[in-house]
Amino acid sequence: MSSQHANAPHYFVPGLSRWPVYAGASLLVTMIGAASWVNEVKVAPYITGLGILSLLVILYNWFGDAIGESESGKYGANVDLSFRWSMSWFIFSEVMFFAGFFGALFYARSISMPWLADLDHKLLWPNFAAHWGNIGPAGTIETFRTMGPFPIPTINTALLLTSGVTLTLSHHALRSSHRDKASIWLLITILLGATFMGFQGFEYFHAYTELNLKLTSGIYGSTFFMLTGFHGFHVTMGAIMLSVVLYRLRKGHFTAEHHFAFEGAAWYWHFVDVVWLGLYVVVYWL
């Protein structure tokens, strides 16, 4: 937000916007494509890609409108507060999103697996072993190996923890009006996030080619790839958000007192860091 307008007494009410409808439609196309992709529909990757591409175009224009309104001085302190509440609730919704997947993992591993072990094996299948990473009934799931914490997951943990520190340093530099230092630390944060995604891509390649671990590898494979995959998606989105903030920072946007776009992206990035710590312990170590 521009400093000269941050404490303005008015409350800006935006006009009607077509972007929410467009965004909803593109998300619907994306989800249809993703669901079809999982079910091996041939055209599904193209449908998914079309949905994602259209969503990115929509978000570019939608956020461009908001940035233009902010820089033209239309936003006051009340709008700033509404943005903070909106981002807080959005992050809360993301917390509940990941809670659902962590809950599924907990139920499968800590409740249903021991319960199945207590049943007469004749009701299930011979030689049933109640260990995590179970291949299920003989012949239904290909044999695979589970993913351990070394070395890539541990390296990625160090990368994300370091990125949280560099982002905090960038924030403090901006609050001290050191724009160049803020830009450098923010760029380092983005590069650390990109490196994280590179390692995760290599981890997936290793899982598929050497461990035979796939999304279809029973409950272990599905929970592993859903948790790590969605987290990787959030890291990617966070890096895009921080890249936009870096661009705006170099364009002269933000002041030491008013820079909610930076703060909102930073909140999101720190949330992603915390989720990874839980994921690192629960998925890779336990």
Short structural summary:
The chain has 286 residues and is an all-alpha fold.
Describe this structure in words.
The chain has 286 residues and is mostly helical. The chain is 71% helix and 0% strand. The protein is built from 7 helices and no strands. It is elongated, with a radius of gyration of 22 Å.
What is the rounded Rg? 22 Å
How many helices in DSSP terms?
7
Number of strands: 0
- Proportion of strand residues: under 5%
Secondary structure class reads mainly alpha
Extract low-pLDDT stretches. Answer: 1-8
Share in helix: over 70%
N- to C-terminal separation? 45 Å
Order of helices and strands: HHHHHHH
**How would you state the average pLDDT, rounded?**
90
Core attributes:
286 residues, mainly alpha
Topology diagram in text:
Elements: H1 19-38, H2 44-71, H3 77-118, H4 152-175, H5 179-209, H6 218-250, H7 260-285
Helix pairs in contact: 1-2, 3-6, 3-7, 4-5, 4-7, 5-6, 6-7
